[in-house]
Specification:
Structural class: alpha+beta
Number of helices: 12
Order of helices and strands: HHHEEHHHEEHEEEHHHEEHEH
Radius of gyration: 26 Å
Length: 296
């Protein structure tokens, strides 16, 4: 049968696939648009599954806060290359994931992947993007933060995103603190939040270092406690110098804001903890050239 250009155009608009792929699907389904779209969807999902093992360490971090300013979501969506991470379809998908997660109150990644988006679930849309773009794409993590007062948010270059929960203070302070968290990467809010095991291990390491300096035991003990306080200040939000005014610690900043209190924070950075494959671009090009020559 004859497949019209109009039918191919319609299928392309529905699926986002290439012209020849659309034409082949229409031929196989005798021109049935719905059947062709379903066939392409199944083929696309199969292609997506094949790419699932490839490292995706680029991408974006997106943040969404509700209208009341009391709840927020931060999500990391990954791709294999920064080129894909900058594409409109990818950026739109990442934003849609965060919006859906915030609206639903989903508590786990599995729940987020099952959330409905226009055209299918989050995971179905993800897999269709993989099939169309040709790279592995993954929703790596999503986290939710609520606060009794307000949520501050900050995104730096689409690669680092932070949420801060604040009790007291104002919106400007909340945003400044989110900016600080994005820049300084604290691990805990205050020393009281650091697990006892972490403190004990660090004290043990510092004691071993100080003991090797040949000083009396009582001096070593004071050295260890002093260094431990410095270590805790470095890893805790309240002890860090405020990024916009290093002469003031975050703790003093909060006190100056009428005793405002940080109730929690979340910080995501793209590719954090993912082991990236190191590649030499010139070697990769030569390998492709040799492979092409071998086929002739």
């Amino acid at each position: 049968m004859t497949i019209t250009a109009e039918a191919v155009k319609t299928l392309r608009e529905r699926t986002g696939a290439g012209m020849m792929e659309c034409k082949r699907a229409l031929i196989e389904t005798n021109g049935d648009l719905d059947a062709a779209a379903e066939l392409m969807r199944k083929a696309g999902l199969a292609k997506a599954d094949k790419k699932a093992g490839r490292v995706a360490a680029e991408g974006v971090v997106v943040v969404q806060v509700n209208a009341a300013g009391t709840a927020g979501v931060v999500a990391e969506v990954n791709s294999e290359t920064d080129f894909v991470a900058r594409q409109d379809d990818f950026q739109r998908f990442a934003a849609d994931v965060a919006v859906a997660a915030l609206a639903s109150g989903a508590g786990t990644l599995e729940e987020v992947l099952a959330l409905p988006l226009p055209g299918g679930s989050v995971d179905e849309i993800r897999r269709s993007l993989v099939a169309r773009i040709g790279e592995n794409i993954g929703v790596r993590r999503v986290a939710r933060l609520t606060a009794p007062g307000r949520i501050g948010s900050y995104v730096h270059g689409g690669r680092i995103g932070a949420l801060v929960g604040l009790e007291g203070g104002d919106d400007a302070l909340a945003r400044d603190l989110a900016m600080h968290v994005a820049a300084a990467n604290p691990q805990f809010v205050s020393p009281a939040d650091v697990p006892a095991a972490t403190v004990g291990k660090e004290r043990e390491i510092l004691a071993a270092q100080a003991a090797g300096e040949g000083k009396p035991a009582e001096i070593v003990a004071r050295m260890v406690e002093g260094r431990l306080r410095k270590y805790l200040a470095e890893i805790c939000l309240t002890g860090q110098p405020f990024v916009k005014d290093p002469d003031v610690t975050v703790e003093k900043l909060l006190k100056s804001a009428g005793g405002a209190r940080v109730t929690g924070f979340i910080r995501f950075e793209v590719g954090e903890g993912i082991e990236k494959r190191q590649e030499n671009f010139a070697d990769e090009v030569m390998a492709q050239v040799k492979a092409a020559e071998g086929r002739h």
